[in-house]
């Protein structure tokens, strides 16, 4: 089965903002099956799973299933939101 692998409009801005403040960012948006868009790490902080959404975006059923397994996923809506939640 093929999966849609589109990134939200804010994706690039979020990645750039996180990298500017020292995060290592692995873009996993092409993985599908509900896996979060980004895996991020900054020295002194835990590795984080980040789902990037644009205004009006929604969490898919696959993403809900992934999160229901107990994975701690941070959902962000903009670069500013990502910095506020992760710093």
Features:
alpha+beta, 87 residues, 30% helix
Topology:
Elements: H1 11-20, E1 24-27, E2 38-41, E3 48-52, H2 61-68, E4 73-76, H3 79-86
Parallel strand pairs: 3-4
Antiparallel strand pairs: 1-2, 2-3
Can you describe what's shown?
By secondary structure, this protein is α+β, with helices and mostly antiparallel strands. 30% of the residues lie in helices and 20% in strands. It contains three helices and four strands; from the N terminus they run H-E-E-E-H-E-H. Strands 1-2-3-4 form a four-stranded mixed beta sheet, with helices on one face. Helix 1 packs across helix 3. The chain is globular, with a radius of gyration of 12 Å. The termini are far apart.
How many extended strands?
4
Widest sheet: strand ordering:
1-2-3-4
Contiguous helical run count: 3
**Apparent shape:** globular
Main beta sheet: 4 strands, mixed
**How helix-rich are the residues, as a percent range?**
25-40%
Mean pLDDT: 93
Radius of gyration: 12 Å
> What is the H/E string?
HEEEHEH
Structural class, by secondary structure, is: alpha+beta
From the N-terminal CA to the C-terminal CA, the straight-line distance is 37 Å
Strand content: 15-25%
Low-confidence stretches at least 5 residues in length (pLDDT < 50)?
A: none
């Amino acid at each position: 089965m093929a999966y849609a692998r589109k990134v939200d409009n804010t994706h690039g801005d979020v990645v750039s903002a996180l990298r500017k403040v020292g995060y290592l960012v692995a873009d996993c948006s092409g993985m599908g099956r509900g896996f979060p868009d980004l895996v991020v790490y900054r020295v002194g902080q835990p590795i984080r799973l980040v789902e990037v959404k644009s205004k009006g975006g929604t969490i898919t059923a696959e993403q809900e299933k992934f999160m229901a397994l107990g994975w701690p996923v941070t959902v962000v809506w903009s670069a500013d939101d990502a910095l506020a939640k992760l710093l």
